[in-house]
Design a protein that fits this description.
The structure is a homodimer of 432-residue chains.
Chain A: E1 3-9, H1 13-24, H2 26-33, E2 36-43, E3 60-61, H3 65-69, E4 75-78, H4 84-95, E5 99-102, H5 105-122, E6 126-127, H6 138-145, E7 151-157, H7 160-171, H8 176-185, H9 194-197, H10 200-214, E8 224-225, H11 233-241, E9 244-254, E10 260-270, E11 282-289, E12 293-300, H12 304-323, E13 347-357, H13 362-372, E14 377-381, E15 391-402, H14 403-414, E16 424-428
Parallel strand pairs in A: 1-2, 1-4, 2-3, 4-5, 5-6, 8-10, 10-16
Antiparallel strand pairs in A: 7-9, 7-11, 9-10, 11-12, 13-15, 13-16, 14-15
Chain lengths: 432, 432
């Protein structure tokens, strides 16, 4: 029976999980794959560190370069999660025609184009199922299952940490800070949670999904990203009153004129839509294709085990690709779609929260500005005041308008004497 | 650019969809696949019939055998949905090393073993994504994405017609007959709906899923199948009162002693579980693996477009397999799992509805029988009577017991003088 050698770079949480499950489910993999997989080297920073999995000392090395130099390694699994070193390892492996498996979303979002140009030059594949949504096979779904579809939209809850925080802010009415602290204590958020709560991590994943769906590497500076840090419990409660839940969504769409849009921001999702009930650290993606219609994928988006499942399926794919070289090297570039539309041109519906003086004429002034800018109001709510004194919240649901229009309106409304704080805006998505 | 010839057998609903979308999305497929696909023959029963898609007369033939004889056809797409003829076409194609794509679930459930033995002999793959759950890529997920997982369970809503009927019985309190009639008028149920409502169609799909998950073709006579025909609106309403929805589920599980269980029956699903809110003709599958944990897939399980998406992804897979012959021919048999456990040994929780005399001592008699048989009661409800006279409904939720135990109890309870009609039992599933 054919045997393939694996070099594993990185023995953090996911690396340890991959090692553990490759060993535990060895018999099953052999039967289903028709070959055996053997881990031949493991590159770590500190070989002396005590690890939850028992890796023979003879496999350990501190030099990731050793994986490249070892001719018995045909599959390089990059789980270091670094930048220069990970890129060096991946490009080095491609040059030596070793198949690459990586979960490095930041690297792919930034260097995807370069990596797949090298992959094409050397006809050596790079697989990256673990880079998006952990155990959910969304990369395979878009790349293979929906190959005959124009992807019309993807709406994804693709950051478990922020979804956990939003779930707690919604269900337990915690503040952002309280929910973040709880997430950190539960191990769902890191000591430095910036990349999770500022939308950066979700943006990496959105870039990868959009690039796969539309055949070109979407430049990071062309997408719109907003995090959840400034969301308040009142906004979440008001949204509920309108029949919505607030979720951090990665949104990817293509319109008929062939422009695409990629954005990450807090979003009001109708409570009846299944994405609204995805809670805690779970991820979910609603994918709409012109042939398949609406589909949804749900599962654990992070964590040792779920992510290991994705890495192992890529290792299996890598073994297959070594037996029979394939045309699709993990990413098929093409020029059928146009560029990324700037956020200013993108239309959305909106939720607005204003703090206004509680006196006659206020609503008329605000509605006047919106009317002048041809922005339609679909609903107005003036809830019981929470503030003391004469300031009250005023909530508006706004019909479709471009970002340019709404920003213009917000600026003018913010200058009104009756408006006491900077207006707060959250985008709204409906699903047809 | 390489070109592959397709022979399409069957121009019904799905066949027409495949033809239409292959033509419409030709450019996209070419870019993503790196080759072109050309339909070279279409086998139909009646070439004179007017079709919704415009197939050139030169492609039409009434003999499916012509697809086998044409050396320019490398991919045979079997969508005739017949038995002997479909089997003849598939086996004939395998012998000639043409790659097969089929959505024929009945045929696979019955002849899967034979078909894949032939596929192995001739090293020629057979793909069948369209056979289960339409546009949801569940075959690919189990075969490839979860290759490193022992599949612990699959709970699937895999028959859209019966899910539509149950949804209408639940939401609109229709009777089974009324809901069935509505489904037929809406085109969601056929004139002869037997195979949909008696669980037969779901059983075919459950057999395919179980076989794929556990590496051997599960014999049809070893699985338990019960349909939805005898469900009443009262059962559905009572289930609601206990916090459940009634769904026709395909249930597949493996236990640690390596026996597997495969069954299809109406099931009480906790209303909080996402499967409970899958309504109408949609399908959904909750898959639990020992590495990936809980996942869920949702989408259209039938219909021209969704099913075409699956067929086209298989055609793409077929083109790939022609370029680089693969080890996995669509199904990898192995002997790691044991046989199918008989229903009598399978444990479940249960909902029981009895029609009893409204007088003292009745509950004691029934509880006595259950107690003697070591069957635990988790909850009892005696709702307001709907019947006239002295007969009232009595509802019991029963703790885990084997089918043997519960059938024994039902028989003895049915013989009690105070029990006026045959007891009604529905199985209950909880999800940890």
């Amino acid at each position: 029976m054919q045997q393939f050698g694996i070099g594993l770079a990185g023995m953090g949480n996911v690396g340890a999980g991959v090692y553990k499950h490759l060993v535990q489910n060895r018999a099953l993999l052999r039967e289903r794959l028709g070959c055996t997989l053997e881990i031949r080297k493991v590159a770590v920073r500190d070989p002396a560190r005590v690890r939850p999995v028992d890796v023979p000392a003879s496999l350990l090395t501190t030099r990731w370069e050793d994986l490249l130099d070892d001719p018995s390694i045909q599959i390089v699994v990059e789980l270091m999660g670094r930048k220069e070193e990970s890129l060096g390892l991946i490009l080095g492996a491609i040059e030596r025609k070793k198949v690459v498996v990586t979960g490095n979303k930041a690297l792919l979002a930034e260097h995807g184009k370069e990596i797949f140009e090298a992959a094409t030059t050397h006809a050596s594949p790079v697989f990256f199922e673990a880079a998006v949504a952990g155990g959910i096979p969304i990369i395979k779904a878009i790349r293979e299952a929906f190959i005959g579809n124009h992807i019309q939209s993807i709406h994804g809850i693709i950051n478990g940490t922020s979804n956990y925080i939003l779930s707690r802010m919604t269900d337990a009415e915690m503040s952002f800070d309280e929910a973040l602290r709880e997430a950190q204590e539960a191990g769902y958020a890191e000591a430095d949670p910036s990349l999770d709560v500022n939308g950066g991590d979700a943006a990496h994943k959105a870039i990868i999904l959009a690039s796969l769906a539309y055949g070109f590497w979407v430049p990071a500076d062309r997408i719109f990203v907003e995090g959840i840090e400034s969301l308040t419990t009142s906004d979440i409660r008001f949204a509920k009153q309108f029949g919505y839940r607030v979720k951090l969504l990665g949104i990817i769409k293509s319109d008929e004129s062939r422009g695409i849009e990629v954005r990450v921001h807090p979003t009001l999702v109708p409570e009846k839509h299944v994405l609204a009930s995805v809670n805690g650290v779970f991820n979910a993606l609603a994918v709409k294709g012109d042939v398949v219609g609406e589909t949804l994928f749900y599962g654990r988006g992070a964590g040792q085990d779920a992510t290991s499942s994705a890495v192992i399926s890529d290792i299996a794919e890598a073994a297959d690709a070594l037996v029979s070289p394939r045309r699709n090297l993990g990413f098929m570039p093409h020029g059928l779609y146009g560029a990324c539309r700037p956020i200013d041109d993108i239309e959305s519906e909106y939720y607005l929260r204003l703090s206004v003086e509680d006196r006659p004429g206020t609503i008329a002034q605000i509605a006047g500005i919106l009317g002048e800018l041809s922005i339609g109001i679909s609903s107005i709510l003036q809830p019981e005041s929470e503030d003391e004194g004469s300031t009250v919240p005023l909530l508006l649901m706004i019909h479709r308008a471009t970002n340019r229009q709404i920003q213009n309106a917000l600026q003018r409304i913010g200058l009104l004497a009756c408006v006491k704080k900077p207006p707060r805006m959250i985008r709204v998505e409906h699903f047809s």
